[in-house]
Amino acid sequence: KMLLELKAILGVHLESEFSLADAPRFQPLKDDQSAYLKEANANRPELKALRSRFAASGVQRKSAQEAFSPQVYGGAMADASASQGSSGVNYTIGVTFSLPLSDGGQRRSDLDKAKALQERAKAETMQAEQRISKEVRQVWLDVETAKQSYETSRTALEAAQSAYEITALRVQNQKAILVEQ
């Protein structure tokens, strides 16, 4: 089953033949479960993307909230001119003060939309974190189960080999028949 799964993951035709270079053997995990959870939360690309989307939605929300505040704009301009009898530089400075009074609900609508997008991004991020945590925990349990199955199989193999050796010894000493072996 694992070879079929490997072929599917690699994108190889399922009827193709290949074999593993070494015999499969169990290698226990090096760290504890929390280290793998931490690594998955830090390195999974979908979580990075969702966290970036959440941060961007926070900036959008702040921008929508700032639209309700008074705005001040400044500008400066210099002009040099020369005419008969006088030369000089003219300076112009302008300041614009904007106070939002009414916009037909556009700012409120933009703010509500930004809040909804932020809440959605937060929910998607939390769902992805829970899903990834679940996946890591399930794989951890699968590895622990495989470890126990490996130990059980190894013990059963040793018991079967011992039983065969005892039967072979009994046959060799003519205490049992060859069919029993």
List the secondary-structure elements in sequence, H or E: HHHEEH
Mean pLDDT: 85
Enumerate the strands of the largest sheet in spatial order, edge to edge or round the barrel: 1-2
> What share of residues is helical?
55-70%
How far do the termini sit from each other? 32 Å
Identify low-pLDDT runs: none
Protein architecture, described:
The chain has 181 residues and is of the alpha+beta class. The chain has four helices and two strands, in the order H-H-H-E-E-H. It has a two-stranded antiparallel ribbon with strand order 1-2. It is rod-shaped. The mean pLDDT is 85.
Keywords:
181 residues; alpha+beta; rod-shaped
Summarize the topology.
Layout: H1 2-10, H2 33-43, H3 45-66, E1 71-83, E2 86-98, H4 106-172
Antiparallel strand pairs: 1-2
Helix pairs in contact: 2-4, 3-4
Question: How is this structure best summarized?
Answer:
The chain is α+β, with helices and mostly antiparallel strands and 181 residues long. Helix content is 60%, strand content 14%. The protein has helices at 2-10, 33-43, 45-66, 106-172, and strands at 71-83, 86-98.
